């Protein structure tokens, strides 16, 4: 078992880049909570369907939920599937139209431990419904992995997924058609920091033929140019480089211009990092609960919410704001145009 509780709970590991910036007021109309789960529900990741509905991966239980963000009411999050022989879900990515890959594995929120060798990737297919639920099947057991975390499709139409391993500090390439997998990217920039910090690379996404990634506790956002096709698809074609020394970073989303919106659990901030590396704090800090415990985010996909960034949280489980209580994981709608 790999111990992660020190990594997530030590406040001394948080970076000063956030704490010096005042938080937006919770009453800001640009930032509003649209849904909250019961206490100690850790939402780890999010994806958006073409119909606008949100898919929510729970890390504190092996559950996948769906939520309509334009009509959220208490209890309206729909449980789609509980994955067997696992304790939580991590990354999620759309691999074909309305078909998603989900990272599943053994993780304990109570002890903050992960079990190497327990991780797998599953397919959730909304094109084939049974009793109004998607068809779910396993793609592969990734038994050589230690802690699969963020995940992205290499390119539209590609059979390859890139999956960050936060403990090994590498990126696995998984062919979701053949179930074959191998390490495709590795660099000191992906490795965990010095013990007891055991989390390295976390979120990973592709923009303009480069793989961008966060390193949670080395505290930077980095990239490397990669090839998108051929037998070496996903491999590096150039130098790994740090885009910004922006502090703690979890998962993130890109806008059309290549700006990255980075969730900062457990620093409790939401950042914008430009392609040139300029860092702007949009919301929150270590003394604010407005996006407390934010783990990932994704933009809406309909005309009504294409400028809304949906941020998911763990309610502060990994390090709550001083003087506050842990809450349920939240889905927060952030109107980025109002903040820029």
TrEMBL record:
Keyword Signal: yes
Organism for this UniProt entry: Hyaloscypha variabilis (strain UAMH 11265 / GT02V1 / F)
Protein name: SMP-30/Gluconolactonase/LRE-like region domain-containing protein
Signal peptide range: 1-20
UniProt xrefs under Gene3D superfamilies: TolB, C-terminal domain
Keywords, alphabetical: Signal
